[in-house]
Amino acid sequence: MNVLSIDIGGSAVKGAPVDTRTGKLLAERYRIETPDKVSPQRLGEIIAEIAKHFRWRGRIGAGFPGVAQGPMIRTSANLHKKFIDCDLVEVIEKATKCRVRVINDADAAGVAEMRFGAGRGEKGAVLLLTLGTGIGSALFWRGVLQPNTELGHLPIRGKSAEKFVAASARKQRDLSWKEWGTQLGNYVRVLEKLLWPELIIVGGGVSDKHHKFFKYMKTRARLVPAEFFNDAGIVGAALAGTGKI
């Protein structure tokens, strides 16, 4: 089944059709910048524009950076607060006239990596972290997703961890790769004490630069970059769009 996948981020919305049998993108991603925090209605319009770009009439899967329970969004740390308790499926279906499924964006990335990528065949505890505007997290046990593990909001000095160790925080705080990698490693070791993962997968836009900071993280678990790099969320949202996740 081919599904139009939508990756909703803090600075842009991206979309591409995906072959869910192989995880391959069937066209180049189409990206629309969102410099301001868009409302749910505006997001629906943006996704409709992406669907129109691909002349899409089939299923749509969307990854959202917040807790997603069925069609409902429960948290929105980095996007408009009107998304909280919003029926995002209804919003997108009304705008596109297509059948829609939504999933937490880090869960989507994790599903892709477990199905096709770095977590393929892993039977123990696997933790995936997506590093971008914030920190997304997904946890798997014996290949089964434990949904909506929002570990990026664990408190550090009274604020969410992502304010200090997300990829965006490195630039905002003007940290070197060594400084940031060391602080990120300290945060990840806290997660290791809580969850005891055997494998940690790092995704998000910064994952293709993993050679610059992995050496400073000093984790107990095996640490690997996402094989899909920043496309993991797109692939996983497409899998969610099939209705089988």
From TrEMBL:
Superkingdom of the organism of origin: Bacteria
Signal peptide start-end: none
One of the Pfam families matching this protein, by short name: ROK
Protein name as catalogued: Polyphosphate glucokinase
Gene3D superfamilies reported for this sequence: 3.30.420.40
Source species of the chain: Ereboglobus luteus
MF-aspect GO terms: kinase activity
Transmembrane stretches, start-end: none
InterPro entries: ATPase_NBD, ROK
Keyword field contains Cell cycle: no
Keyword line: Kinase, Transferase
